[in-house]
């Protein structure tokens, strides 16, 4: 490449250049600047705004896992919230005796192993039937939690306050503490997600998604690849659930229901299935949309369109949620990632048109 700071043409002369994570030095520098800005951002926001950012980061982590199972491998998963719940309840059982930085990967591992079990039907069924299988797992998880004394029949299981290097997550810095934990975890696991595609296992996921018979003929094992997809997707969900358990200070079944699974699937669709940037844009868009429903409902009441005693925001949330999904599926099936791709392509050749 003649100019490592600008991608003005295809001048790659070594395999290492073609397989690098960043096409130019400018992409690396811009990413480092962005990450630095994200590290400083909570210092300029209120506790409520940091709370919203925490939710976005946690859901982005769960959406990354869903994009491995559904985006990469093409296996429809409607039980991602259940995997989050497995990680959360595992964290609730282990947290009194272990530090959080050990509890989180153990919760992810527990969810990943259960994901392998849930993925076993994918060896025989696919598409709608597999979706119903994951839906059944979601229902079984909710029923099991609601009937097991170990998990207090779905009641609140308190989480202890965490500490790291002498810094404890107290009342004043609770949201900020878990922001940095969630942000660091998300960055590390996003790098692992991005590198997955560059490995033979990542390429096998895509090959099985496109045509599992052709992948089998080329020497890949479709069954093992599908189980790997479920394991990785559930692992990401379990880690996200563990962070959410610490963040919420309690584990309750209402945070890991079918509604949350559909919400995560919507985030993946809106952001762009199988894309890294879409895994961030989708949760951010959906969470900010949910928050701004309060503002929109206030405007409707000011215009006299809301009935007396009617919670307009509660009524508008399901409508906006469903409408957004339908509109994206109809007019932008590649999600917000496609908008990001167009903007990035424009500035890559700027000030030239092509």
Could you give the order of strands across the largest sheet?
Answer: 1-4
Strand segment tally: 4
Dominant shape: globular
Largest sheet: 2 strands, antiparallel
Summarize the structure.
Helices cover 69% and strands 2% of the residues.
Attribute tags:
mainly alpha, two-stranded antiparallel sheet, 354 residues
Description:
This protein has 354 residues and is mainly alpha-helical. The protein is built from 14 helices and 4 strands. It has helices at 15-18, 25-40, 47-72, 80-94, 100-119, 128-147, 174-196, 200-210, 212-217, 222-248, 258-271, 276-302, 312-331, 336-349, and strands at residues 157-158, 163-164, 167-168, 250-251. The chain has a two-stranded antiparallel sheet with strand order 1-4. A two-stranded antiparallel sheet has the order 2-3. A hairpin with a 2-residue loop joins strand 2 and strand 3 (167-168). Helix 3 (47-72) packs antiparallel against helix 10 and helix 12 (276-302) crosses helix 13. The chain is globular and about 60 Å long. The two termini are 18 Å apart. The relative contact order is 0.14. The mean pLDDT is 85.
């Amino acid at each position: 490449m003649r100019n490592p700071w600008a991608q003005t043409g295809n001048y790659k002369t070594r395999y290492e250049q073609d397989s690098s994570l960043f096409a130019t030095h400018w992409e690396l520098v811009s990413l480092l600047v962005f990450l630095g800005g994200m590290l400083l951002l909570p210092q300029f926001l209120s506790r409520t705004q940091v709370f919203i950012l925490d939710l976005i980061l946690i859901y982005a982590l769960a959406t990354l896992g869903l994009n491995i199972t559904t985006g990469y491998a093409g296996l429809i998963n409607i039980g991602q919230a259940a995997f989050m719940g497995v990680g959360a309840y595992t964290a609730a059982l282990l947290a009194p005796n272990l530090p959080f930085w050990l509890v989180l990967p153990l919760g992810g591992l527990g969810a990943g192993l259960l994901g392998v079990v849930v993925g076993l039907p994918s060896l025989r069924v696919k598409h709608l039937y597999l979706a119903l299988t994951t839906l059944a797992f979601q229902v079984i998880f909710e029923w099991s939690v609601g009937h097991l004394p170990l998990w207090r029949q779905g009641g609140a299981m308190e989480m202890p306050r965490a500490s790291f290097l002498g810094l404890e997550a107290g009342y004043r810095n609770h949201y900020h503490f878990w922001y940095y934990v969630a942000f660091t975890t998300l960055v590390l696991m996003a790098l692992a997600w991005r590198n997955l595609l560059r490995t033979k296992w990542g390429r096998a996921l895509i090959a099985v998604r496109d045509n599992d018979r052709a992948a089998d003929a080329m020497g890949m094992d479709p069954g093992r690849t599908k189980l790997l997809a479920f394991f990785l997707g559930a692992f990401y969900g379990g880690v996200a659930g563990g962070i959410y358990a610490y963040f919420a200070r309690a584990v309750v079944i209402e945070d890991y229901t079918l509604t949350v699974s559909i919400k995560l699937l919507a985030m993946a669709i809106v952001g762009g299935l199988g894309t890294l940037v879409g895994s961030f844009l989708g949760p951010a868009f959906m969470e900010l949309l949910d928050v701004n429903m309060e503002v929109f409902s206030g405007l409707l009441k000011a215009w006299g369109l809301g009935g007396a005693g009617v919670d307009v925001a509660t009524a508008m949330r399901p409508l906006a949620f469903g409408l957004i999904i339908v509109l994206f599926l109809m007019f932008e099936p590649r999600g917000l990632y496609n908008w990001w791709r167009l903007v990035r392509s424009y500035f890559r050749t700027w000030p030239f048109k092509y």
